[in-house]
């Protein structure tokens, strides 16, 4: 297997030497006071910020396979809470995308691939016997809209998320960058009398 490590380190040495980092200097606090949970898909790396008119320093971006919050007290939810409480993010965006790899994940096949790559079947059986349902844990989702709304709902109703935090749900076209709104967090808060409507910027 060819590694890209040496190529990256060589480029990085030149990047630092010629101060190519200067256009990206910013603080750790998001200028637009938002945090985005999105997918790790390669097509979104540059497309998503460009399509949202975001530049370096504007937002916090948290990534997971499928833009999913798989556990209410897992690392993804912790990252969102850190962004809100410690890094001054006032809004949360959950952005999935069409043609997501997580919608096609076959857990049984993935376990087979693990074995092919050298993971001992005894280890897999030990994990299963310890109470972890590997198939359920690895399973993706069938419908991206349902998945995004499920994550939105979990974040909105999380006991540690501050009241009045808008949590929006969107889906992106990974080819054009077009965003489709599934759930407007401001409308949700207004409808449920959870926010002072005079504070919502138009």
Automatic annotation (TrEMBL):
- Name this polypeptide is given: carbonic anhydrase
Cofactor(s) listed in the protein's UniProt record: Zn(2+)
The reply on keyword Zinc is yes
Keywords, sorted A to Z: Metal-binding, Zinc
Cofactor binding mode and count:
Binds 1 zinc ion per subunit.
Which SMART domains does the record cross-reference, listed alphabetically? Pro_CA
Q: Mind giving the lineage of the organism this protein is from?
A: Bacteria, Bacillati, Bacillota, Bacilli, Bacillales
Molecular function (GO) terms listed?
Answer: carbonate dehydratase activity; zinc ion binding
Known catalytic reactions: hydrogencarbonate + H(+) = CO2 + H2O
- Give the E.C. number(s): 4.2.1.1
One Pfam family of this chain: Pro_CA
The UniProt record gives the binding positions of Zn(2+) as: 39, 41, 97, 100
Q: Which family would the database say this protein is a member of?
A: Belongs to the beta-class carbonic anhydrase family.
Cited PANTHER family: CARBON DISULFIDE HYDROLASE, CARBONIC ANHYDRASE
């Amino acid at each position: 297997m060819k590694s890209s490590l040496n190529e990256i380190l060589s480029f990085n040495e030149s990047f630092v030497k010629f101060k190519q980092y200067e256009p990206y200097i910013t603080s750790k606090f998001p200028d637009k006071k938002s945090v985005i949970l999105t997918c790790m898909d390669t097509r979104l790396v540059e497309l998503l910020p460009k399509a949202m008119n975001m530049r370096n320093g504007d937002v916090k971006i948290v990534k997971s396979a499928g833009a999913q919050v798989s556990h209410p007290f897992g690392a993804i939810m912790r990252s969102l809470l850190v962004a809100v409480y410690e890094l001054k993010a006032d809004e949360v965006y959950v952005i999935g995308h069409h043609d997501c790899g997580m919608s096609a994940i076959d857990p049984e096949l993935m376990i087979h691939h693990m074995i092919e790559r050298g993971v001992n079947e005894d280890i897999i059986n030990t994990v299963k016997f310890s109470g972890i349902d590997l198939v359920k844990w690895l399973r993706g989702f069938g419908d991206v809209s349902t998945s995004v709304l499920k994550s939105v709902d979990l974040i909105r109703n999380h006991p540690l998320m501050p009241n009045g935090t808008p949590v929006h749900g969107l889906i992106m076209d990974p080819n054009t960058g077009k965003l489709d709104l599934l759930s407007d967090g401001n409308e949700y808060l207004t409808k449920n009398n959870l926010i002072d409507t005079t504070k919502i910027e138009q």
